[in-house]
Amino acid sequence: MPDISFESATPSYVPAAGFGDPVFGAQAAFRAVMWALSRPGRPEPLPVDLVPPAPLSAEAAAVVLALCDHETPLWLDPALAAAPEVAAFLRFHTGAPLVAEPGAARFAIVSNPLDMLDFSVFAAGSPDYPDASATLVLQLDGFTPQAPAARALRLEGPGVEGALAFAAGPLPADIAARLAGNRALFPRGVDLILTAPGAVAGLPRSVVAREA
Amino acid sequence: MSAAPDPAAPDPATPESDAAPAGPLLPELAYNFAYLDEQTKRMIRRAILKAIAIPGYQVPFAAREMPMPYGWGTGGVQVTAAVLGPDDVLKVIDQGADDTTNAVAIRGFFEKTAGVATTTRTSEASVIQTRHRIPEQPLTERQILVYQVPIPEPLRFLEPRETETRQLHALAEYGLVHVKLYEDIARHGHIATTYAYPVEVAGRYVMDPSPIPKFDNPKMDDCPALQLFGAGREKRIYAIPPHTRVRSLDFDDHPFRVQRFAEPCAMCGARGVYLDEVILDDRGGRMFVCSDTDHCETRQAEGHHGGMWGGAPGAAA
Predict the structure, then answer these.
(1) Minimal Cα distance from A67: which residue of B?
(2) How far is CA B178 from CA B8, B42, B147, B212, B253, in A?
(3) Which of A111, A132, A141, B62 has the fewest other C-beta atoms within 10 Å?
């Protein structure tokens, strides 16, 4: 029988803690995301007790820890992929396979939305299975016109009563055109979960966004 | 093999057995919050989010076996379990009633496995699981209505192959449903479909609203609450986000119409609500009462009385 040394099993890197309460932390994060996607452009409060490694934000980490597991290939944008602690943190808490190819991902975290890849590189689903598509989790600074590089949008569609003014930043200057291109694919397309300190907002593929 | 007793086993008659702690030998079985394990909840939650993003589209999900038979709301129960939090107040109705077997059993299930507060009042509930009705009282913004769905596919009885119906949805080819409604007109002179009446959601997917009476269809349109649908046996989840256009299919010359009742509720006198027929005897005696028990009891408590009202509920005559 081989000699098992327990000291050799001590990890060299201890990832930051996950949800204080995994069951209710995940439930609260999911409910915030659920309402955010149900009512596009209306930010939901998302209080979190996570301290993930930079540049991963606490709110994006909460969304991913609540929704991702071994069934959801996860893609990290270059800024996140450059931080090995982020990958270790996400691997430890979710077990999600991290993929280098964005098209293979079911979830993607974008820490730098200004340099965001075009939506077309992500899975948009098929006409038969439009649900087999990517969900993009964006890390933003805020949901006000005062946020840096904020873009003002006018939203309509399912979940929006009449029309709604929505602003968030930082977002690429052509975000309205990108969202319109995404909407043109409907029912295919990607869904956006926007996170900012203390809040989460949704831009599902069903939303009709115009520049305001 | 000898049947002699194992000398090491304690004699049940010895005083030691009296010293054993009272109560069951095994610890009480402990479930995760709301019964489902966390991985199952994540899988269902992801399906719910995609369902919300694609209104009316049926998202396949890996429905689990639940401790109740198919047909008793296994889909709705799984959706409820995935959304439920400790602060939720749950209401469960079966054909509008809070006090029938299915509703009582599911309410008890979540009281036991999630410890959440339950209610029969529509206005107090944050999550309402329903079988075949939408409450009479208008729903509000923060409420979630979870439907139990037997057959989620509105085209299933017209085209049995899943591969075909999937393609028909992909192509938005819904001629078959209109043919079915047209055949109603050809045979009966009017659209005779009275429940599970197909709707078009947000101008794209045709959806089965579950076997609710078509009386309830207009309540789905522009509803401020979130509507989630769970089909356990068929393993599908679909959704209508708040304030979404839901149109009941019809024709220009045969517009969609809901049922009308000649008389008001016999207990609370309500008009413009959905009524159940109750047979009273074998000589043709009958009464019509609200299908929504909470609505009826609230009205009675407010002093509204119908023709057969006989005093406060529970009071001795």
Answers:
(1) B42
(2) 77, 37, 25, 19, 13
(3) B62
- A86: nearest Cα among A15, A11, A12, A10: A15
Report the residue count for chain B: 317
Domain boundaries, chain B: 38-163+194-247, 260-309
Q: B124: distance to nearest CA of chain A, Å?
A: 19
By the 8 A CB rule, do A99 and A127 touch? no
With beta carbons less than 8 A apart as the criterion, state whether A185 and A177 touch: no
Q: How far is Cα A206 from Cα A209, in angstroms, rounded to an integer?
A: 10
ipTM of the complex: 0.95
* Pairwise CA distance, residues B207 & B201, whole Å: 7
Write the CATH number for A165: 3.40.50.11310
Question: Is residue A147 in a domain?
Answer: yes
The string of DSSP letters for B95-111 reads TTBSSSHHHHHHHHHHH
Burial of B21 (0-12, 13-18, 19+ CB in 10 A): exposed
CATH class of B38-163+194-247: alpha beta
Residues in chain A: 212
Q: What's the token pair of residue A68?
A: 């991702």
Q: Tell whether A4 is covered by a domain.
A: no
Interface residues of chain B, partner chain A, Cβ below 8 Å? 32-33, 38-39, 41-43, 45-55, 57, 59-60, 82-86, 166-167, 169-171, 201-202, 204-205, 222, 224, 226, 240-245
Range of the domain at A189: 21-211
The reply to whether A1 falls in a domain is: no
Domain membership flag for residue A184? yes
- Measured from the Cβ of residue A99, the count of other Cβ atoms closer than 10 Å reads 16
Number of structural domains in chain A: 1
Task: Considering only the beta carbons, identify the residue of A71, A133, A186 that sits closest to B43.
Answer: A71
Tokens 């998302």 sit on residue: A46
Tokens read off for B149: 């769905």
pLDDT tens track of chain A, all 212 residues?
A: 555 555 555 566 788 999 999 999 999 999 999 999 999 999 999 999 999 999 999 999 999 999 999 999 999 999 999 999 999 999 999 999 999 999 999 999 999 999 999 999 999 999 999 999 999 999 999 999 999 999 999 999 999 999 999 999 999 999 999 999 999 999 999 999 999 999 999 999 999 999 98
